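Dear Dr. K.,

Following up on our conversation at the group meeting, I've run the structure prediction for Porin from Comamonas testosteroni. I'm pasting the input sequence below exactly as I used it, so you can double-check it against your construct before we proceed with anything downstream. Let me know if the numbering doesn't match what you have in your notebook.
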Amino acid sequence: MRVRISHLHTLSAALLCASGAAIAGAQDDAKGFIEGSALNMQNRVLIEQLDYQKGSSFRATSGKRGQTLARESAFGLMLNYESGYTRGVLGLGLDAHAYGAVNLGTEADHARATPRYVAKDGQDILDSFGRAGAALKVRVSSTELKAGEMRTKTPIFSSSDTRLLPESNRGWQVISKDIPTLTLQAGRFTGWADRNARKNDADLLANYSGMTSGSFSFIGGAWATPIANLTLSSYYGKYADNWNTAYLGSFYKLPLSGQRALSFNLNLYRSTDTSKAKSGEIDTTTWSLMSSYAAGAHKFGLGYQKVNGNNPFDYVNRGSIWLENAMQLSDFNGPREASWQLKYDVDLAGIATPGLSAGVAYTRGSGIDNSHLNAVYANYLGYSGVNGKHWERDLLVRYIVQHGAAKNLSLQLRYGVHRTNKAQGEANMNQLRLQAELPVSIL
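The predicted structure tokens came back this morning:
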């Protein structure tokens, strides 16, 4: 999708104006600022242990080196408020959030210095911390514009919520659903708050090059095609002074008889450096394909992923990688890497008890060539080997309470193992994570 990012403001304005011509839209059903409000609270407890194997070591938050066991535990509280829209052709509203974390026993000598839960780079661990933000919103028909602090969800710029607290970004975003079967999005973000950040509006950060930027801009959308159960999506984004990324995705589900179905999920990224190239020369094409077969409570998956290029597939924000083989402990995104995944998921409601589910996955990557990394990635990652290979095994068990005072309480056990050779560059580790979540609707 070759659309110049400098035209995003013009396009967004056009989307807002065009939506006024729609016969009916979401704004027609506006309940009012207060009447349509919702306030929700999410409680989360996380306990994690990372056991580094075969001589692997890390630097703890305290500065202590040579550790082999990392431990963290914390409680997270997330309040999310969404107002309704004022009535009329133009609806106004406000979204706000407040996130807080409490240390439940994490010690600086045993927590990783690299960000995870309550540990923070170069700082002692606080007993508690938090941050808050808000975004103004405007709606015409079924086109909505938000400006402020918010979470995002697109294949090239997406906010992660896989740790204690969610990450968020500062900027603006417009989403239009006025055209039937088509969802259009455009946005520009200039600030970032990581999942364990103490404040908002830090510079945007690339995950693998470590390079910062003043903005990320994108445009794209998803189309529910006339072919039943086939969805196509395409996005184009610019990480200012670093790289451009084009994305193409598709999902197709073929229903079969007897509660059976086949599905195919394709994700393709094309990344090239910009003129300033702060992350160095980049020319990578990365794609993944997951084929799944579902039969009643059982689902089997076979995935393949390939990186074509001399550098790893890089991305901004922790959740902006929708590749199928981006796993719990590794993204399997090394230069020239090819990886396979086998997975199995089962809904144990009819076998054991309602609310119980489980899944297991095995992913193996090989052919990694770190010998041609550009200077930025070579200095940041410190990798140089050829013929790198690794594997990861993940087990997940989840139970959601179905009745009583603890209804909707989610309990999750995750166990992961990652093993690698020296050429691949990442750590050998075992991960054990316990997680409990309780959502509460206040308003």
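Two things stood out to me. The chain is about 5% helix and 50% strand. The helical segments are 8-19, 375-381.

Best regards,
J.T.
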